[in-house]
Specification:
Distance between the termini: 31 Å
Function: Catalyzes the epimerization of the C3' and C5'positions of dTDP-6-deoxy-D-xylo-4-hexulose, forming dTDP-6-deoxy-L-lyxo-4-hexulose.
CATH topology: Jelly Rolls
Number of strands: 13
Enzyme class: isomerase
Helix content: under 10%
Strand order of the largest sheet: 1-2-10-7-12-5
Order of helices and strands: EEEEHEEEEEEEEEH
CATH class: Mainly Beta
Radius of gyration: 16 Å
Shape: globular
Subunit structure: Homodimer.
Strand content: 35-45%
Family: Belongs to the dTDP-4-dehydrorhamnose 3,5-epimerase family.
Pathway: Carbohydrate biosynthesis; dTDP-L-rhamnose biosynthesis
Number of helices: 2
């Protein structure tokens, strides 16, 4: 597993080694000991699977209790995946990282606790799998506006994205509950 540091040092890109031949490919996508050594010691307790059509934007979601770290990968299609630092005392507070994740590139994105997460689908369909370090807690879930001018995320969007009602109700960074 190759680990790539992003502009926010706690957010990492993981590139599994892919072995390909005329039959297809094989890659190891998860190994606890390797993750602990190369990224951060964490235990994952929940796996999620999301399927979305082209133009869907999900996020930017986070929980202030049962705070979740997420290891995200795409197994069908392609997404532009975003992590936003919401740790008030962090030198990268309010900054974001955007990474292309696809079935083709096999990359994974580690988003530690204290970050909001979202993605935009650029292929006809995309299926994302993500491991979480804590359980989903809907009573502690929050949503940042995907188009908050303060964040100025450079989404690869050419028209209005498809949003859930929850995502349409997101708040701006200035109004958001944050982490210390």
């Amino acid at each position: 597993m190759k680990v790539i540091t992003t502009s926010i040092p706690d957010v990492k890109i993981l590139e599994p080694i892919r072995f390909s031949d005329e039959r297809g490919f094989f890659m190891e996508t998860w190994r606890q000991s390797g993750f602990d050594e190369l990224v951060a010691p964490r235990q994952f307790v929940q796996d999620n699977h999301a399927r979305s059509c082209r133009g869907t934007l999900r996020g930017l979601h986070y929980q202030t209790q049962n705070t979740q770290g997420k290891l995200v990968r795409v197994v069908v299609g392609e997404v532009f995946d975003v992590a936003v630092d919401l740790r008030r005392r962090s030198p990268t507070f309010g900054q974001w990282v955007g990474v292309w994740l696809s079935a083709e590139n096999g990359r994974q994105l580690w988003i530690p606790e204290g970050f909001a997460h979202g993605f935009y689908v650029t292929s006809d369909w995309a299926e994302s799998l993500y491991r979480c370090t804590d359980y989903y807690n809907p009573t502690a879930e929050h949503c940042l506006r995907w188009d908050d001018a303060t964040l100025a995320i450079a989404w690869p969007i050419s028209s209005s994205p498809l949003l859930s009602s929850k995502d349409q109700q997101g708040c701006c960074l200035a109004e958001a509950p944050l982490f210390d």
